[in-house]
Task: inverse folding
């Protein structure tokens, strides 16, 4: 009797599933079918909105691509051949409104940047220095800015670092830098307006103690550089505004007006 009752209950449930749920699912399917034209229209309009600039000027997509390629090639050329850090500098590629900024150094205007690069003489001290740059890309929010990564390598077997001030002699030390983020911003005349360097992506790689740019190189070759703090900020102030010989930590005056951040040196970074 009990078994018979169970069988009847199972049959009833199965019948309900077949005749109760299916019509409900069919209603959902029909509703979706009715909504499909509307959904397709929305997708089509979105695609048309995206393509509308290309409809009026079909060459605009290719033009933007060519402009991006040109900007990236220009960034590579400056980095390897005209920066003053990896090679001698070419003053003609820098805008009069140029600003340099890194985690520890800057802002530097054009005059002070070129003087500082000449004073350090990094490419002379490490003749085989190589940024090994990769990942060049255009900023999606600023088509005039190129971002990329570097991982510096080289051997300190050339001239002394900063021979007219620090005069740190070569010792054959190997440089194996950590990955760093760089960027270059160009003005309407394709002059370099802003250069940012030395922002470390992985401080656990290389032999620079997690530091980037020139400070990373100092760590790799054994040149003492004070940790960020009151002593380091005092040293930067004294070397820049009192001693005033050799490399500068920041520009004391004539920083272009477009640069509005008031921090100098390592201030505001750590």
Result:
């Amino acid at each position: 009797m009990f078994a018979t009752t169970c069988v009847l209950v199972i049959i009833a449930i199965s019948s309900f599933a077949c005749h109760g749920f299916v019509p409900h699912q069919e209603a959902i399917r029909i509703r979706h079918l009715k909504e499909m034209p509307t959904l397709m229209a929305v997708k089509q309009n979105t695609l048309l909105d995206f393509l509308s600039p290309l409809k009026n000027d079909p060459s605009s997509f290719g033009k933007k691509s060519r402009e991006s390629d040109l900007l990236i090639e220009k960034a590579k050329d400056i980095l390897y051949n005209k920066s003053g850090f990896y090679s001698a500098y070419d003053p003609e590629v820098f805008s009069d409104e140029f600003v340099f900024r890194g985690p520890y150094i800057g802002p530097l205007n054009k005059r002070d940047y070129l003087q500082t690069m000449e004073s350090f003489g990094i490419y002379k001290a490490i003749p085989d220095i190589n940024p090994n740059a990769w990942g060049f890309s255009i900023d999606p929010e600023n088509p005039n800015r190129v971002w990329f990564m570097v991982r510096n390598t080289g051997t300190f077997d050339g001239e002394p670092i900063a021979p007219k001030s620090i005069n740190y002699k070569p010792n054959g030390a190997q440089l194996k830098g950590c990955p760093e983020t760089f960027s270059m911003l160009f003005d309407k005349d394709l002059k370099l307006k802003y250069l940012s360097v030395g922002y470390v992506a992985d401080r656990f790689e290389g032999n620079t103690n997690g530091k980037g740019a020139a400070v990373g190189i100092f760590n790799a070759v054994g040149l003492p550089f004070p940790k960020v703090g009151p002593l380091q900020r005092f040293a930067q102030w004294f070397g820049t505004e009192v001693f005033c010989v050799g490399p500068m930590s920041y520009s004391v005056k004539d920083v272009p007006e477009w640069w509005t951040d008031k921090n100098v040196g390592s201030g505001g970074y750590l």
